[in-house]
Amino acid sequence: MFKAKLIEDLSYYRIKRKELLLTLLISIPAAAISSFATQCTAVIVGLIIVYIGLGSWLIYLQKKMKSKTNHRTIEIDADQIHLISSKQKEAKRTIQLKNIDKILLKEEYNPPLDISEDYYRDMINELRGNQIKNFIILEKDDRQQQYDFIVDSHYMLKQLGKIISNWKRKGFVIENV
Question: Model pTM?
Answer without folding.
Answer: 0.81
